[in-house]
Amino acid sequence: MTSEVLILNKRAVVLGADSAVTTSGGDHPRYSKSANKIFELSRGGNVAATIFGSATIDLLPWEIALKLFRTQLGNTSFSRLDEYSTALLKFLSGNNKLFPAELRTSWIESQFDEAVKVALNEMSRRIFDTDVPLQERRNCWAKEVERLKALIKDRGVCQALTQKPLDEILDRYALTPWVSRVTEQLFQAGLDAVNAHELAALGHEIRYCYPELVLGSTGLVIAGFGEDQIFPAYEHFAVYGHIGEELAYKKVTSFEVTHTSTAMIQPLAQASMINMFTEGFSASLEKIIQEQGNTAFLAIFEELKKNGVDIPKELVQSITQRCQTDFMGAWKSKNWQQNFHPLLGVLQSLSVQEMAHLAESLLSLESLKERVTSSSESVGGPIDVAAITKSEGLVWIRRKHYFDANLNMRYAARLEHSFE
């Protein structure tokens, strides 16, 4: 896990990130406090990228991928920030140098197997109950397949992927080896009601329509200025990895400072304490209020029943759900009016130095909370802070290094030469 924050106003965008990274190791995960998560994305210093969630993309460290993109980009510049995002994602997608074709092909089987597990887990447990007659379980299977197909149709192929490769796989003859692969896995008790052909098709449809259920993801944020933008902007993507020849990702959110939309603060990843500061409540507090609110609404109907007013169960559920939705929306709206909106008014007037200090302070607070309440060590280490302004470009305000710059004069010379 990690903790990061973006702060934007008309003067600059400030990016802050901790240095914690977790390496999975079975029952003994390894924690490190030396990860780099903020990277300059253009030689002109007007755009940067920050990552969270995973340090790699399809087995390749993000640091390598981003720096190679910067090298390829050279002195090229774009008029708007979203053009940098588009160029980066295009550079990554199907890149045979970074992600060899044979390696991408080898991932299809593991992705398919995982998608099949997802499909089976979404099915009614009645299908696998051997005490239920076989024909009844097959009928249940058919209904569940119809339900999942409807969800898949409504969702559609992931926005970054195309329909054609999926259609080619779902072709009757192209699907045959996948049906055989599924069939080998169905010789287990309780799976005799499963249709192998339909399951194989669902597996590939889930790969293309719900890649987040099959692959891990990295939060990728691109922030800074395009040549024609006088105010900063950012775009946030969830990047899943390659599905066949294409890179699966989706845009999560974006924001651009304008003359009227003057500031924004955006926490990323682990952000309970930052949310408490910005919004006045954390996700855990929101969950508690939602649960207790639902309990209180249901208690009203219990009291009515005790006093002779018996309301049908379906109507109770409908009224409770509607009241719960209205209640949650009302208190959060009121809270934002009293906390978040006034904070934006303050942010728009902060200097670059004050924005940087705020980013560092929020991350320090998040790190302290994690250290005293959790043993995971998933937030912490040195805090890196960078600011990007229209005139100065990217300037590091806090930055760790794995080497002493004074002992590496040749590196400094190479760096200077690369910007000539």
Question: Summed up, what is this model?
Answer:
With 420 residues, the chain is an alpha+beta fold. The protein contains 13 helices and 14 strands.
Strands, total number = 14
Fill in the CATH topology of the largest domain: Glutamine Phosphoribosylpyrophosphate, subunit 1, domain 1
Uncertain ranges? none
- Contiguous helical run count: 13
- Judged by helices, strands and strand pairing, the structural class is alpha+beta
From N to C, what is the helix and strand string? EEEEEEEEHHHHHHHEEEEHHHHHEEH
Instruction: Please tell me how large the radius of gyration is.
Output: 26 Å
Biggest sheet, strands in spatial order?
12-1-2-13-14
The CATH architecture of the largest domain is 4-Layer Sandwich
How does this structure look, described?
The chain is an alpha+beta fold and 420 residues long. The chain folds into 3 domains: 198 residues, Glutamine Phosphoribosylpyrophosphate, subunit 1, domain 1, CATH 3.60.20; 104 residues, no CATH class; 55 residues, no CATH class. Helix content is 47%, strand content 19%. The strands form 4 sheets. The chain has a 5-stranded antiparallel beta sheet, with helices on one face. A 5-stranded antiparallel beta sheet has the order 5-6-9-10-11. Helix 8 packs across helix 12. It starts with a strand and ends with a helix.
